[in-house]
Amino acid sequence: MNKIIYKQQLSSDVYKMRIEAPLIAKERRAGQFIIVQIDSHFGERIPLTIADADPVEGSITIIFQAVGRTTHLLAIKAVGDTVQHVVGPLGQPTHIEKFGRVICVGGGIGVAPMHPIAQAMKAAGNEVIIIMGARNRDLLILEEEMRAIADELIICTDDGSCGRKALVTAPLKELCEMEPKPALAVAIGPPIMMKFCAETTRPYGVHTMVSLNTIMVDGTGMCGGCRVTVGGETKFVCVDGPEFDGHKVDFDNMMTRLKAYKSREDQDHHRCHLDEAIEEKK
What we know:
282 residues; alpha/beta; Elongation Factor Tu (Ef-tu), domain 3; Rossmann fold; 2 domains; 26% helix; globular; disordered C terminus
């Protein structure tokens, strides 16, 4: 049993929780994740990124969007309640070193998994430029936390209610055109956003890492649900990832697989604006 020791609602359907998990807090590294099972009666297992950890307190921080049944059930839990099973840390940690100028692009809830990566990149001595994107000001998360890390923070919103009225790819392109160009770009967010970030950096030869959040069951590579095609080879996000070279990921195949259970999900309230823009052009 893992006790919830802190809870905060960040936006209409996004929640932040600190959960007691001393062993995970001690071992986790940037880029890794956990798999959560709320209780034995409802057996769905879901992957959630570790947004932060406090080894002294023995806690990990998760930030999630209430989208499906499991995340809605997790969202209604209160401080003092427990989560029955928390397994981790899972996945390969982010490769951290002093690259030089690193661009971290977070879209929507993707800002949460970007937080520990940006922290680690800064601690390694990199110049860290963070681009955050959301539909509007109310959906921005971790702005102050990211501002404390970044050498420069660029905010983009669809409606211009905060920062620039632009997609995150606009400032990313501008930064790639500067000299010296970035040594590394890291993009986390909806698959369509990561795809277009990778396409933006490709002409400039800027190495681009993306963190994938696919359908996942066991977290050990046995079920095969999280398989993706990277560089023409089959990879499993839970054990080979979650981070891959964005220029090699077959995003179209990945997005097709993610739609396998679309009829069972309520997509209306978290529909990506880039997806909508593509459909409008058809």
